[in-house]
């Protein structure tokens, strides 16, 4: 697809067609969103769709998950005119950190870290990642934020809703758990969700 082409009608998720399928085998993610990020209008519309459910919600900071969540997270923070916090894979931060072990989408055991001085109690965080497949990575990020007293708000009347945003939140056990407990936004139209869940 031409990286300068913009369709006449831009329905939610039109930019998903910019993503390229995996040609390198099972050790890689099944889609590569790089071309989406290279397309000026595609990236803008993706971020707008991610933010639409949070219109009017008080968000104090955006946190992006290492590594591809940094792209959408930083773009989202810029649109909101808020600060951006990088949640890192272990071993990259030279300051005091809080660590959380997790299992990623490929079944590998990993550890995630966040600096301890960036989140104060009650800070309302919008967590952004590129993709939620099994939910393990996002759940670890949620645990880090909440252990530091930040709010990735649960779906309850007493809680101010900020939450979780990703291009796709798959209908996996972990994805369903996140959707059931947190306010979420993603870019996949309902009629395409089952195809994304099957990685087609």
TrEMBL record:
| A cellular-component GO term for this protein | cytoplasm
What is the protein's major site of localization?
A: cytoplasm
Q: Which domain of life is it from?
A: Eukaryota
Instruction: Enumerate the spans annotated as Phosphoribosyltransferase domain.
Output: 57-149
Q: Where in the cell is it found?
A: Cytoplasm
Q: Which GO terms describe its molecular function?
A: adenine phosphoribosyltransferase activity
UniProt keywords (A-Z) are: Cytoplasm, Glycosyltransferase, Purine salvage, Transferase
From the UniProt record, list the reaction(s) this protein catalyses: AMP + diphosphate = 5-phospho-alpha-D-ribose 1-diphosphate + adenine
GO terms in the biological process aspect are: purine ribonucleoside salvage
Pathway membership, UniProt: Purine metabolism; AMP biosynthesis via salvage pathway; AMP from adenine: step 1/1
**What EC number is given for this enzyme?**
2.4.2.7
The record's listing under Pfam families reads:
Pribosyltran (PF00156)
Which CDD domains does the entry mention?
PRTases_typeI
Q: How does it assemble?
A: Homodimer.
What does the sequence similarity comment in the record state about its family? Belongs to the purine/pyrimidine phosphoribosyltransferase family.
Stated name of the protein: adenine phosphoribosyltransferase
């Amino acid at each position: 697809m031409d990286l300068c082409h913009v369709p006449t009608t831009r329905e939610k998720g039109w930019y998903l067609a910019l993503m390229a399928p995996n040609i390198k085998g099972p050790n890689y993610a099944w889609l590569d969103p790089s071309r989406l990020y290279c397309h000026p209008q595609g990236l803008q519309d993706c971020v707008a769709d991610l933010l639409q459910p949070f219109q009017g919600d008080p968000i104090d900071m955006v946190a992006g998950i290492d590594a591809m969540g940094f792209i959408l997270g930083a773009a989202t923070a810029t649109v909101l005119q808020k600060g951006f916090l990088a949640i890192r894979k272990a071993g990259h931060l030279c300051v005091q950190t809080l660590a959380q072990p997790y299992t990623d989408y490929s079944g590998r055991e990993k550890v995630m870290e966040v600096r301890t001085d960036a989140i104060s109690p009650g800070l309302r965080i919008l967590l952004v990642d590129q993709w939620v497949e099994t939910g393990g990575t996002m759940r670890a990020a949620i645990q880090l934020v909440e252990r530091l007293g930040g709010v990735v708000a649960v779906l309850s009347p007493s809680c101010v809703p900020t939450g979780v945003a990703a291009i796709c939140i798959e209908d996996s056990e972990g994805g369903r758990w996140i959707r059931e407990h947190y306010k979420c936004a993603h870019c996949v139209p309902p009629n395409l969700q089952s195809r994304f869940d099957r990685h087609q």
